[in-house]
Amino acid sequence: AVRLRVREALGAREPADAVRVQGWVRSVRSQKEVLFLHINDGSSLESLQVVADPSLEKDLTFGSAVEVQGKLVKSPHRMQNMELQAETIRVVGPCDIWSFPLKMKERHSLEYVRQFPHLRCRSNTLGALLRIRSEATAGIHSFFQDNGYVHIHTPIITSNDCEGAGELFQIETSSEEKESAEKTHFFNVPAFLTVSGQLHLEVMAGAFTHVFTFGPTFRAENSQSRRHLAEFYMVEAELSFTESLQDIMQVMEDLFKTVTSTVLSRCPHDVELFHKYIAPAQKVMRVTGKNCSPVVLFSSSCRISYSEAVEILKQAPQTFTFKPEWGCDLQTEHEKYLVKHCGEVPVFVVNYPYDLKPFYMRDNEDAPQHTVAAVDLLVPGVGELCGGSLREERLPFLKSRLQRLGLTDAYQWYLDLRKFGSVPHGGFGMGFERYLQYILGVDNIKDVIPFPRFSHSCLL
Fold first, then answer.
1. Pair 243, 223: CB distance under 8 Å
2. Rounded (5°) CA angle 37-40-42
3. Over the stretch 433-454, which tens digit does the pLDDT of each residue have?
4. Can you give the pLDDT at residue 300?
5. CA distance 169 to 157
6. pLDDT digits (tens, 9 = 90+) for 240-287
7. What is the spatial distance between Cα 364 and Cα 397, in angstroms, rounded to a whole number?
8. 124, 187 in Cβ contact below 8 A?
9. Which of 49, 194, 328, 424 is the most exposed place for a label (fewest CB within 10 A)?
């Protein structure tokens, strides 16, 4: 028998005599003369209907793993193209339905399934989410490869604090904790889990012009809020030979539109599940055309400076928890208001105060305000989605700033990049989980990751 995935069986155009389908039982309904069950193997939101003789029902329960052999035939039901007429059903792995926390015909909330990180992937919602993650990941890689970028695997263990916020997880061996205060580090210097691959990408951009990375990053921010993760994935890119912040913004926009189009065209039913049951008021995008290309309203009028943003916030009719002042960072409440003010569409905010941003951002030389060529992309419901800048390629400017910060010795190698063939360049990073939050309308970022967080109930 030819093995078919559920998605392949549902999409088959012609009947087939000898097929084999493996998966997990989603429903069982036994009648006097016929047995109906639906099985799913994770390849599709929709399950495959199996029609069998009631004598084959032995040990069939919701959640059990089965292998079904039989004939693939046209379904008489309008809602499904094909169904499987079973000749044999083998229970590969039984399931105790009384202790199984997921129940047949119940729509479990995200809060409920979060209690079972080792089992929640078997729910429809998390199954849909993981298929969307997979397609979005493939779409990101395709976008960059199609546009001539070289994929770089940047280090996960590093001695650099790229963001300068000090929110790092330090790496130690288990034996180091037992040693004396005079202990030596494993790498002879303190080592941390990376917060960004940007500085390593800048090294590679000096040889390959356009580079990107897509991997795990870590922040030791002590927050259990609905928008923070200790481990998350970051898409980062660096572009050499660019002197315009507009070029960086255009890549951000093109990346978003291309990847979203891929997700909508390949996972329409999975996305619909979120918009119908999880976020029914979601209005992130409209979908048109046969290929489900998104019409996302990136408007040139929704590109404002940081200074303009602060003035908009000061004139806002609402009271903020954090008072907006020039020179202070924009908080999430400020970002969401700016998006609302601009009509609930993505907003680019450019030219942030010099003292707010890391040392590598390019000085605009615009005294007395003194800003850097930085940009944040704000989106509805989330706030900041992407952050980027032109990088400071001028050696005197960079050397002066590192001296003021006392970082010259630590970043001597970074100064070397400006001595040997330096060019104007820039880049950006996009939080992958925040992107998923935005397109799906999920409120809690912990619901868009495979495992909600390290938990005593599931030591994975």
1. no
2. 175
3. 999 999 999 888 888 888 865 4
4. 62
5. 10
6. 999 999 999 999 999 999 999 999 999 999 999 998 888 876 544 444
7. 11
8. no
9. 328
Distance CA 133, CA 266 (A): 11
CB 211, CB 150: distance < 8 Å: yes
Are the CB atoms for 4 and 39 separated by under 8 Å?
A: no
Burial of residue 294, with CB atoms counted within 10 A of its CB: 0-12 exposed, 13-18 middle, 19 or more buried? buried
**Euclidean distance between CA atoms 115 and 395, whole angstroms:** 52
- Find the helix or strand (DSSP H, E) in which 425 lies: strand 425-431
Tokens 């990107």, residue? 212
- Please tell me the distance from the alpha carbon of residue 218 to that of residue 196, in angstroms, as a whole number: 8
Write down the pLDDT at residue 170: 84
Which pTM does this prediction carry?
0.90
**pLDDT tens sequence across 171-188:** 887 765 555 545 666 666
Q: What is the pLDDT of residue 166?
A: 57
Domain boundaries, the chain: 2-100, 122-175+184-447
Contacts of residue 188, defined as CB under 8 A and 6 or more positions apart, other chains included, come to: none
Burial status of residue 131 (CB atoms within 10 A of its CB: 0-12, 13-18, 19 or more) = buried
> Following DSSP, what letter does each residue of 104-129 receive, concatenated?
TT----HHHHTT-TTTGGGSHHHHHH
The CATH code of the domain at 2-100 is 2.40.50.140
Among 230, 236, 223, which residue's Cα sits nearest to residue 197? 236
Instruction: For 305-314, write each residue's pLDDT tens digit.
Output: 999 999 999 9
Q: Which two tokens stand for residue 17?
A: 């005599």
- At 414, the amino acid letter reads Y
- Greatest alpha-carbon span in the chain: 85
Q: Which of 3-12, 131-140, 264-273, 293-302 has the lowest mean pLDDT?
A: 293-302
Q: Are 199 and 209 in contact (CB under 8 A)?
A: no
Query: Quick one: tokens of 236?
Result: 């980062």
Number of H helices, E strands in the chain: 11, 19
Residue 301: burial class (beta carbons within 10 Å; 0-12, 13-18, 19+): exposed
Q: How far is CA 119 from CA 446, 448, 458, in A?
A: 15, 15, 10
Q: Residue 457 and residue 15: Cα distance in Å, rounded?
A: 45
Q: Which two tokens stand for residue 358?
A: 């890391």
Q: Which residues contact 268 (CB under 8 A, 6 or more apart)?
A: 292
Q: Indicate the residue type of 80.
A: Q
